[in-house]
Structure formats: C-alpha cells, structure tokens
Fold these 2 entries.
Entry 1:
Amino acid sequence: MGRLIVASNRTARPQEPRAGGLAVALWDALSERGGGVWFGWSGDTLARETRGVRLFVEGAVDFALADLTEAEYQGYYLGYANRTIWPVFHYRVDLAHFDQEAFDTYAAVNRRFGGLLCQLLRQDDIVWVHDYHFMLLGQELRNSGWQGPVGFFLHIPFPAPEVFTALPQHARLARGLADYDLIGFQTARDVDNFCRYMEQHHGAELLPGGRLRCFGRSMRVAAFPIGIDAQDFARLAVAPEAAAAATRLGRLIENRALVIGVDRMDYSKGLPQRLQAFGRLLDENETLRGRVSLLQIAPPSRETVGAYRDLREELDRLAGRVNGDYSDLDWTPIRYLARGYPREMLAGLFRLARVGLVTPLHDGMNLVAKEYVAAQDAEDPGVLVLSEFAGAAERMQGALLVNPHDIGAMAEAIRRALEMPLEERQERWRALFAEVAEHDLTAWRRSFIAALEAAAEPAGPVAAAIPA
Ligand code: ADQ
C-alpha cells in the first residue's frame, strides 16, 4: 500500500493542537496508512518568495509546508479564494469581486504548489486534495508529470450551473477539476449541480458507476457527506469541562429555556435572519418573554474582508433592537458572544440547550448540526432546527427543517421546538443520532480513500460511496 498524501490550504502544523474534527480525521487517515505527507501553506507570509518547502516530522507523518508571499496571500487567499469563490459558491454573487489578476495569482499559487508537491511524490502514493483553494492543484500535478491517483474533496457547496457560470473563469476551473480521478462533494445536490454544469457547458457524458467523461478524461463523481466523531463528542458533552461550562451558563439563565447558535461569523451562516426570527418569536408570543434566551456564539473570521465588518455591525444592531424592546432587570433575550470556545465547553452548552438553531443560507455540510445532536441527553434531548440549505439537511430529516429566508416560519419552528413533547423529541433524536453515529468521520475518510483507489483504475471495481 502506498503512502497517503494530503494537500489542504492549512494543515494541523506540528505542535499545534489538532482540536478540529477535520484535522483529527486527516491525521488518523495518514496514521492509519502507516505514514504519509501533509502538504499545505505554512500560514506564514513573507515579503519575498522562498524556495522549496519546510519539512517537519511528527510520528509517522511528514509535514511539508510552503510559505506565501504577501502578494500571493492577497491575490490567492484573501482575493480569489475568499472574495470570489467563497461568495459565488454560497450563492452570494452580489458580494463577489471579479478580478482577473486575483485569479492569475490563484492559478500561479496552484502551479507553484503543484510543482513543490510533485517533487515529494513516490510512485505508488495516492493524493487527496482538499477544498476550494486548490481546485487547480490536480491539473498542476499532471503538468508536472504525476500520473498516479489524485482525488479532490470540496467542503463547500457546488452551486447551480447558472451561478457557477457567473465566474468568468468557470471553464478554466472545470478543466482543472477534470484532471482529478475522483471528485467528492458533500451532497447529492452538489453532485447533480456539477454534473449538470459539465454536461451543459462542456458536453460531458455520464457513464455508469457515477463516472463522467469530459475533456478527454474520465473521472468519478460522488457524494461523501462529512461527519463528526459522534461517540467522542458525546463523551465530551458529559466531561467535567462541559459540565462546568453548562453550570456557569445555567446560573445565568436560571430555569429559562436556552436556544443556541454556534457559527463562525460569516454571511453564509444566516445570522441576521436568525436574530430576526428570535425577535419575531418574542414579538408574537408574549408568554415566551422572560422564559427563553438565545445564546449566539460567533467569532469574527477573515475580518479584513469588508463584508464581515458590515455583518458584525448588522448583528449588533439586530441584537440591540430585540434586547432594547424586551430586556428586563433579570433577563436579556439575546446574548451574543463574538469569540471562540473550546470544544469541551461548546459540547456542554449544546447539551444544556433546549433548541439548536443551525440556519445557514447555504452550507457545504455544517458540523455544528451534528455536534448538537451528538451532545444531547438521550433521556431528555433538545430539538435541532436546521436549514434546508445546509448539506446536513439531506440526511437529517428528523430535524425541524426550515427555509432560513422565511423569518416567520423560523420563529414558528423555534416555538414548536420549545413546546415539543418529550416522546417526539426522543423519537426525532434517536433517528438523528443513528445517522450521525453511522456516517461519522471515520466512515467519511475511509469511503473516500477506497473510492479514490478504485477510481484511479477504471477497469477495476468501483467502490461504493455512501449513498446520498
Ligand atoms: P465551516 O464553514 O467552518 O466548515 P462547520 O461545518 O459548521 O463550518 O464547522 C465549524 C467547526 O468549527 C465546528 O466543529 C464547530 O464546532 C467549530 N466552531 C464554530 N464556531 C465556533 C466557535 N464560536 N467556537 C469554537 N468552535 C467553533 C467548512 C464548510 C462546512 C463543512 C465543513 C467540513 O463551510 O459546510 O461542514 O467545512 O467539511
């Protein structure tokens, strides 16, 4: 068995805690194969280009990290990845910057990184590339002479063809993607969007076994819904740190019902709509005033991008309106905390909350939905209110599914969740937990790697992805 090579924009660098679920999953994937290489950006930006990569060894894993120049950081990372691809793929064409120079820098970083990675590869390695920063990396590996298996997994949604084609460079990206042997998406909806786009714009032919022929290449396209380590998160939720966090918050909310939202502060997460819905709930249900609190945790991300500053201001204004109208001496309806918390604490807060509000306008998957479910007490579980536009909704039908643009329907779903009888809560939770536990992080990485190994040999058996 060859080595696994993982490429992602950010890696879990040696000495950094691998707190995030994804970092743990990829680390396990590398360790399970007895070693491999994790390649990516070092996180450092330098005034001038440095040659080569920095190598670190940790256990069986080699880290190979490349720096970016300040100009590359601006054009590739802040520019094309975060100001163009991110908004377009989340259906916010209105927020996207279309800048050819930024694309050129994005393509150049993919080329430079492809060349660097290719030098590290050995004949029987398999390469797994992650996310929207590296859509052209596979093609650059091919240009550098690599002929072995390369797979790509997109963590964010793949938009409808009409939206994807808003990108002036859509055909260039599509041509780049076609050099992967396997393209993995979060959901069947993403697979469908991608296949429709390739058929309509590039005459792709759909072949049996989820294969697509296009640009003279044949690739496998499938859904691999990402999961969490559900058992581990359930354990965290009853650990002393979790209980301590719940006790601290519990003292403050006393015997009021808690509604919780936890997100990175990002315009894709539907935060203004969520605060409006909570305001509407209080406007329309006098009996709930003083009896329910919303805790929204949302640390700012990529603050340097203007759209996030605007979002922060809008959230402050919306929370101010509701709190101004309804706060009392001993009760503030919305508590809004603009910072991150350790996973153990989040797990404890999820378990305390009667309602988990996960209402993104668009989301590749959304792991918070799964963490909320995993953290619940089976005897007395809370209710998940979930956006139908989160990838998670495709397989989490036991949640109360809502359209996050429909403020009234969201307010009604929160009310229904607060009043849901125990038996219905238990029944819904059992179905949700079974799903989250079965399609966990280990199942995700194993199914992707098995499919990649099979996809690279068109004559061989086609591995089954998780049916979407
Ligand atoms: P994200 O957009 O970051 O990920 P998500 O899937 O919700 O979104 O994962 C966020 C993670 O960060 C969760 O584990 C959550 O607990 C944690 N987190 C969020 N807010 C936090 C806070 N305030 N403090 C501490 N931790 C916090 C992208 C895609 C998603 C996709 C994932 C994985 O956008 O759609 O599900 O990758 O593929």
Entry 2:
Amino acid sequence: MADNNIRMPSCVVNGVGASPGIAIGRAFLLDRGKLKPRGEKISSDQVAFESERFLEAVTGARQELEEIKERTLKAGGSEVASQEHNYIFDVHLLMMKDKMLVDDTLTLIKEKKINAEWALSLNSEKIINFFKQMQDAYLRERQSDVAHVSERILRHLAGSDYDSIDKISHGVIIVAHDLSPADTLQLNPQKVSAFITDLGGRTSHTAIVARSLEIPAVVGTEYATEKINGGDRLVVDGIEGKIIVNPGREQLAAYQEKKKQYNSFQAQLILNRDLPAETTDGFRVALAGNIETPEETESIISHGASNIGLYRTEFLFLNRRTLPSEEEHFLTYKKVTESLPPGSTTTIRTFDLGADKIAESERFHEDSVNPALGLRGIRLCLNHQEIFITQLRGILKASHYGKLKIMLPMISGLKELRQALEIIAATKAELEREGVPFDAEIPVGIMIEVPSAAIISDQLAREADFFSIGTNDLIQYTLALDRSNEHVSYLYEPLHPAILRLLDQIIDNARKAEIPVSICGEMAGEPLYTLVLLGLGLDKLSMNAISIPHVKQIIRQSTFVEAQGMLEESLKMETAAEVEAYVAKEMNRRFPETFLMKI
Ligand code: PEP
Ligand code: MG
C-alpha cells in the first residue's frame, strides 16, 4: 500500500508485552471472531435470487477449501498430521454437497421466506442437535464439522473471505481478536513478523507459543482490532507491550534504532552460549528449554541449553482430531531425545489438555464456564486411562534411546499422584512381560502448580522423584486470576508475597526430601526475576529458548549472596507493588540498557 494513502492519524495502543522484540510492518487483520448473520424475511419473488446466492456461496466455500487442502498438502508436515488434515478437508467438502445441508436450506428459504443466512443457521442448528444426540462418540463429534462448514459458507454469504492463516504470503503483522494456541502454532515466522490480539494474558498459551516462535507479540490490547485497519503501518514493541499505529517519521526512526539495538543486544548475548550459568561466587544453576514441538529442540540448543525441562506434549494433539498412537508418541519422543547432544535429559510432561489448550476433538470439549478448573491435566488422563497408558508406553519405549523423565501436570494431592504411579508401574510391568526394553529407573516427577500441592509439598516430596514449579498455573490459581483473561492481567503478580512464600516453602520441602526442584513456568524466563529466583536456591530454571541467553548473562554477572539478599528483602515486604518496585529498581540499576521486560 502506498504511503500517501489517507490513513488514521498516529496513535498508541497498549497491551501486555507477550513476546519480546520490535517489529515494523503492515497490519493484516485476521478475522477469527464468530459471524453474527442477520436474519431477514424475504418476499416470494426474492426466493430465486436468495437460493442462487446461497448456492454461489457454497460453491465459493468449496473452491476455497479445495485450495487450502492443496496448499496444506503441498506444505507437507508429518505424514500422520497430513492424513489427518486431508481427512478433515474431505469430510467438510462432502458436507458441502450433502442433501441435508444444502437442499434443506434451500427448502427453508422457499417455505419460510427467509434469507440464506437465516435458513442456513436454522438448518445447521438442527443438524448439530441431531449429531449431539448420537450415542457414538465419533458421530457426535461431527457436530463441530457442521458448525465449521456452515461458518465458512456464512462468510461467503457476507462477502468476506475466511481469512486463513495459511493464506498469508508475505511479511505482515497479524491483528486478531483472538488466536488460539493452535492458530499461533501455524504462524510462519518467515511471513508473520509480529502479532497483536485483543484478548489474552502474558502466560496464555498463545503468548507462550509466540515466544517459542520468536515472534514479537502484544496481547490483551482489548481494542486493537477496532483501532487498527488492514494496511496500517505498525510498530510492535513486544518489550514494552505497546503498538504505535501509523507512526510519524521521528517515531519510526526512534523505533528503527531501538530495533537495531535490541537485535545487537541479542546477538551479543548469544556469545555466552557455551558458558555455564554460574554466579561469580560459584553457584551454578542448570538452564533448560521448554518446547511445544520437536522442531524447537534446534532453537533450544542454538540458544545454549542442552536439556529440555518441559515438553508440553499436548501440542501433539492440537490441530487434529485423532489421538496420537503409541507409535507416534514413541517416534516423537525418540526423535526429540536423539536430536539433543548425548547425555541430555528430556522431561516429558504427560498430556495437559484442557483450559485454553483445547483439542479439536469434541470428546474433550467441556461445556464448562470454568475450564481451567475442569477436567484437565492429570485429571483427564486418570479419567481416560487408555490415553494415559498409550502415552506412557510411548515414553517408556523411547526411554531406551535417551535420558527421559516423566512429569505429571496438575497434581493436586497424594491420591492422584499414587494413582498415576500405580498406572506407570503397571505399564512398566506390561512392557517387561512383552520383552520391550525401557529405562526401569526413569524418574517420575510432578508439576507443583496447584496451591493444594504447594501446601502439602512436604508430603508429595516423599513420593515424587522431582518437582517442577509451574508458576503460570500456580499464580493463576493462588491469586484467582484467569491467565488468559486480559481484564485481570493487571493482577498477574509473580512477586506477590503469597507467591514468593509458596515458592520458598516448596523449594524448602524439596530440599528437605533431597529431591531436585526447578521452575518451568514463564516466570523462570523473565530476566527481571532472575536474581530473586536464584536466591531461592533452585537446581534448574526451564524456559523458552529466546530467554536463555539473557537469563544466563544476569546469573553470570551476579553473586549468589546478592541474589539471596534480594530474596530476603523481598520476603520482608507486604505488597506485590512494593516488591516489584524494589526488584525493578535494583535490576535496572545493576543491568541498565538491557531491555528488561516491563512489569
Ligand atoms: C505452568 O503452569 O507454569 C506450566 C509450565 O504449564 P502450562 O503453562 O503449560 O500450563
Ligand atoms: Mg500449567
């Protein structure tokens, strides 16, 4: 778009800096909101026109889907995933030919004298209800296909493209009301230089994936999609959580300079790659990486870590409908462990589906108003043991090829832990009977991310091989704030006295039981918090690749004694604001000009 076009005057949109970096580019508005079709009565002589309009929309939707199918298949991906996508496309294409969907909508237009949008909505609602009542889980799941197909046709009726992420062909900044973690995972960093969403918080999984892809992102802006037009020039400052819409010449020049400085700061940090994360007085902490997909191991290594402290395996299951088979689990974990340097450890977290990590499959869709408190994590695995056992068999088989650890998410008490341990023991016994080799000594640890687990961490420490603290959920549940909800993101306070006390208590209990303890929540990768966390005396911090060099630099330029002093001071304070102000002041004094993320 030419620069001399009339455009909105410059303005600033604020949000939450979710992934660091500066991007400058054009806005691409991605419509991920639900359409609200307008229903209208029509006269008898409009019936033919309305029917024609409907059939044209169906043809348009079919052609579009054929194109997407072709593009996706060409793009490749794992064979299983391709078969899966292919199958979904075929089901949708068939539905667009289906008598029940097409002919019955035409009949409704004619008989009820209503416009195509209204007729299609009524008809798809009827079909969805029909599938909902099916006994068979597979048939019940078809209701979401009907909803997707109908949505696509409605978009054609509205004359708007169903903006598809895979249609993006050149470098843009995506502006969307919301992106699911699965959407975000499909972004191609070569074509998307940043993204902005109205919804979301700093530890939402969408933000986590953005950091993994190393794409600057600002989330929780509330109104970005209303204030920004497609084609607007944008500056996205993922460090400060700010967007400059149509910046003036001077502002643009200032951000180009900031971008240059940030990039050269990052380039200089990477020089520490092969050095240990050790304080000047000799306290060493292991730095590990968090991954969502096997492809990310490369980035973890190139940023200077060799161990995976958290593999979020539920991402194996997003963007598809069928569960991974035992073989797929096995091959994936084997690939991850074999792509790391010899002797490295991979901590595989068993499925933590639920909350904002929603599987395509209707089988795991919860109609709950509080999905974060619903059937997620270990609860879901204990309720659907066949899924858990399939994954455990895959992990155990892969443990023969590299050092693996099993980590259980969302443990809330001893009963759950014991139940999971029993299943693991039974699975091992089964493999032994089958003569399949595996690591009989594979450590089984738990995430401490539910307040009840933190409170009884002394008891849990006696039965778990290790702890990894999931601060994202621990903060969410302790402070009672939805981590994906932008309206309460101001309450996300990792340095809240309640959180600091809990961390101190968990680590103390792990120490007493002599088990290793780490943090793998986003807090671990926040350079601003590095010294306070270091003061806790952790064994390991696990984080997204992009944070590793910065956190390492801070550790290497500090002493353990001063980190302990900072923690001690912080623990004496009464409010989160007090601790934050103190830590920010101290950190900015010690590390000026180092792009510490704004709190
Ligand atoms: C956490 O809760 O801190 C964590 C690491 O797990 P997730 O972000 O996947 O919930
Ligand atoms: Mg969690």
